[in-house]
Amino acid sequence: MAGIYVHIPFCKQACTYCDFHFSTNLSNQDQLTQAICLEIEQRKKELDSKPQTLYFGGGSPSILSDHSMILLMEQLNRHFDLSQLTETTIETNPDDHSEEKLAFWKSLGFDRLSIGIQSFVERDLHWMNRAHSAHEAVTCVAKAAEAGFEKHTIDLIYGIPNQSMKEWESNIGKAIDLGVNHISAYCLTVEAKTALAHRVNKGLDHEKSHEVIEQEFHLLQDHLKRAGFRQYELSNFAKPGFEAVHNANYWSGKPYLGLGPSAHSFDGESKRRWNVANNMKYIKGVPSNSYTEGETLTETDRVNEQLMTSLRTAVGLEKVNISDIHWDQIMRQVDQMPAALQAMLDIDEIGIKIKPKHWLMSDAVIRELMIA
Ligand code: SF4
Predict the structure, then answer these.
(1) Residue 161 sits in the same domain as residue 91
(2) Residue with the nearest Cα to atom 6 of ligand 1?
């Protein structure tokens, strides 16, 4: 079954590390909403099954005006049959969790919040230029539960310069104590052209060593395992029954329709397309259908993509999902890998996986497995 993703490209302020597409200029919010509504109408035939998941991401969908949010939801309901949705997620920031907003999102049909907490340490939040305080990071989860959101996930970041191992451990402990049922924990990466890259290049901040990051990752795995979470993907941990359906569908190659600037789409077989990552170009391009580009994947591209997405998950790459010829090609790659990387794999009659304790090395392992 398919998913729909809607990209809301606005944020209150720019986080130091972020390279997603967003703008802090909200003055064209109404025009952008109109453009997404038009895109919905233009592309309503692209999904050939009823969507199972709907995901509003960004940017910060939680700062979109109520008026825009209502227009988008009405348009989605007008052009898609949303009766089979099993998960409707909105990404939120802790400072947007007012009682009124939470009730509003609930009334629109959202049943899952993805909350960008990142850290409970005030100094980290300031360093990241987050818009919320440590106090809001703690209280936002209780407010979500009070508003009736049973499903919520929080984002945390590890590898933060100047954050001690004790502070990281305390962040994990706080997340567990808050009673969340899903945690996405990402390793901080220095992306080109971000404020963080500038700071690192100037020597104002120093990236943590691989050894320290590995310790933080293993600390995370140990604590969350003891607290009853299952790590079902490199960055994702869930209590039983709370795994994210939308993201799991991406990893298993299901089709999805991406709407809004910078959103990507995939037809589940070979066709990919992506919208321009610029708000004004998108607004001007939608009426003339000149806001998108695409590509057709070869069989080899498709297998390599399957390796990239599935080998970061607990399921791994299952033999039934690729041809015998491609399986044999991958096994030949395994034979040629350095022994240290080979030892990170589990291969049996079902398929191939990377052992969870080595998931931080998944990029290096996957590179070796890719077929030509
Ligand atoms: S709120 Fe999210 S999307 Fe916006 S700048 Fe920060 S990390 Fe990026």
Answers:
(1) yes
(2) 15
Q: Which atom of ligand 1 is nearest to the CA of 93?
A: 1
Task: Give residue for tokens 């033999």.
Answer: 319
Q: Assess whether the C-beta atom of 274 lies below 6 angstroms from ligand 1.
A: no
Give the distance (Å) from ligand 1 centre to CA of residue 106. Answer: 23
Residue 93 CA, ligand 1 centroid: distance in Å: 9
The kind and range of the H/E element at 19 are none
| Ligand 1 within 6 A of CB of 90 | no
Scanning the structure block, which residue is given the tokens 């790459």?
317
Whether ligand 1 lies within 6 angstroms of the CB of 116 is answered as yes
**Coil, helix or strand at residue 266:** strand
Residue 350: which CATH number? 1.10.10
* Same domain? 236 vs 303: no
- The CATH number for 61's domain is 3.20.20.70
Ligand 1, closest atom to CA 19? Answer: 8
Q: What domain range is 126 assigned to? A: 2-250
Determine the atom of ligand 1 nearest the C-alpha atom of 118.
7
Number of compact structural domains in the chain:
2
Residue 59 Cβ contacting ligand 1 at under 6 Å:
yes
Domain end: 213, 235, 250, which one?
Answer: 250
What lies within 8 Å, CB to CB, of 242 at 6+ separation is 151, 153, 181, 182
Q: How would you classify the pairing of strands 256-259 and 317-318?
A: unpaired
Give the pLDDT of the chain (372 residues) as one tens digit per residue: 799 999 999 999 999 999 999 999 999 999 999 999 999 999 999 998 899 999 999 999 999 999 999 999 999 999 999 999 999 999 999 999 999 999 999 999 999 999 999 999 999 999 999 999 999 999 999 999 999 999 999 999 999 999 999 999 999 999 999 999 999 999 999 999 999 999 999 999 999 999 999 999 999 999 999 999 999 999 999 999 999 999 999 999 999 999 999 999 999 999 999 999 999 999 999 999 999 999 999 999 999 999 999 999 999 999 999 999 999 999 999 999 999 999 999 999 999 999 999 999 999 999 999 999
Beta bridge partners of 155: 184
Same domain? For 7 and 67 the reply is: yes
Q: Tell me the DSSP string of 305-329.
A: HHHHHHTTBSS-EEGGGS-HHHHHH
Q: Supply the pTM of this predicted model.
A: 0.96
**In angstroms, what is the span from residue 118 Cα to ligand 1's centroid?**
11
Domain's final residue, options 228, 250, 272: 250
